[in-house]
Amino acid sequence: xxxxxxxxxxxYERGTMTRRHLVxxxxxxxxPAAAMAQDKAPAEExxxxxxxxxxxxxxxxxxxxxxxxxxxxxxxxxxxxxxxxGPGIHLDFPVGYISVDLPPAGAPxxxxxxxxxxxxxxxxxxxxxxxxxxxxxxxxxKARAAFQSNDGVSTVNLVDPDGVHVQISPKDGK
Length: 174
Hints:
Order of helices and strands: HHEHEEEEHEEE
Oligomer: single chain
Distance between the termini: 52 Å
Low-confidence stretches: none
CATH architecture of the largest domain: Roll
Mean pLDDT: 83
Structural class: alpha+beta
């Protein structure tokens, strides 16, 4: 834009543009930007501020084989059980984890069952309030508060428009 302004002043100084035309041209350059800035809607606040991906859940054919693979690939360590019953485990990273478990009967192996997004803080009371807030704004997602007894963490579980399972978890929770 500065080169355009310079060009206008050069034309004025050479006498090929009147002062009136210079002022009109400058106004035409500046006014649309100011008008557009005023018309621009303020950024919409999200329903909840996500901090990053907390974990993903995978169904696998063999939990031990998956641990060996991810341990060799990334150096994960075995974490707490993924469920209270069954062989599933959490494969821990320094930040986040992969939850691996056998699929239910008839379900595919090698599928992502869900992903979880971290938020600052969530407990049993705030998870119910957050689920209600999400359902009021996005009723088709069927948000519900949940307490996971295997790790003592409160979450909110929902589905996106394509049926992908999404979980909202505390950043410092498991």
